């Protein structure tokens, strides 16, 4: 694989031996700023760092650690210098034994109970539960133990920011060292790539992912991306869009609800834009009648039409509704329900004007996309989640964007 250059900040960190590092070392900042790349020399230094205890690599999952760190590292050292068991997480790297551990939820701390840890490398630290990180630190008792971590910014109320990054006592005692990175710190990025990334985001997402700022997600989620350019009148729809040959793909995302509204969106991809041509919106509270899964499946079959030519994306938890779809021969797949990443992708779709919504036949979705808001109480706890209520059209469109919009469409 090609070997890339280091920026000045990255090189100072990457080439500094562990003996000269502080106990906790955190690289934070913008996306594509070279944070993870400069971990690779540090891992190799740590292979021969003389410290008691286990050496561990952690991330949201073992797969994410492999994708973000190990894949490139293995290409650098060559196949004769490592042996990795993906199931157990046992890694032998340059004659040094490591353990790869996933830390996706509060229960993950059980994987490190009883361990004595001498070196820990944490990929995307802000995505790990606080309980796991605290347990990990409590296991790092050997003299000279070192922890290295990378992270993109999160909420300023996230536990990592006040408890560690902004903790003056830990800095004064030379316990926590950190370095902020921006895209300017990565000399390997072509100027046109940087400009394309800047075009993808605006508002809150621009500040966080491009400028690397720890800012609060507050107010209307899509306020910086929404405009009347995203809405079209039925008579302006491309001729033949909904007929065979008028689109490349037809997709129907479903936000499943029983007491909450049930929403289907009829989305046509013509290769240039995603046209949200219709919505089905049944609110049992307003209608004063709750439908069964069988009735909803019948409505969906009618919504699709006799040609049955749509790919349906549905909430993975809607087991009983999926069973009814199977009975009717409706092709469906589970949606990717990563909420915050889905919101980020929707924001890019809207910012790039890749989607348009029909004013006459998708009015509820248009209205809800403009009022979809962050939960202020959750923000005070350092959590980022949308308010529940009036979120059903946005959730359906998020399922579509997260599951079906390829990255090349966003950066084209």
Overall description:
- It is a single chain.
- The protein is α/β, with parallel strands linked by helices.
- It folds into two domains: 8-190, P-loop containing nucleotide triphosphate hydrolases (Rossmann fold), CATH 3.40.50; 228-411, Nucleotidyltransferase, domain 5 (2-Layer Sandwich), CATH 3.30.420.280.
- Helix content is 34%, strand content 20%.
- The protein has 16 helices and 15 strands.
- It has helices at 8-14, 39-47, 62-77, 130-138, 160-165, 168-172, 191-200, 203-210, 284-287, 293-304, 319-327, 339-351, 363-371, 376-380, 392-404, 407-411, and strands at residues 24-29, 54-59, 82-84, 90-93, 96-102, 117-122, 146-151, 176-181, 231-232, 249-255, 262-269, 274-282, 311-314, 332-334, 355-358.
- Strands 3-4-5-2-6-7-1-8 form an eight-stranded mixed beta sheet, with helices on one face. A seven-stranded mixed beta sheet has the order 9-15-12-11-10-13-14.
- Strand 11 (262-269) and strand 12 (274-282) form a beta hairpin.
- Helix 10 packs across helix 11 and helix 12 packs across helix 15.
- The radius of gyration is 24 Å and the shape is elongated.
- The model has no long low-confidence stretch (mean pLDDT 92).
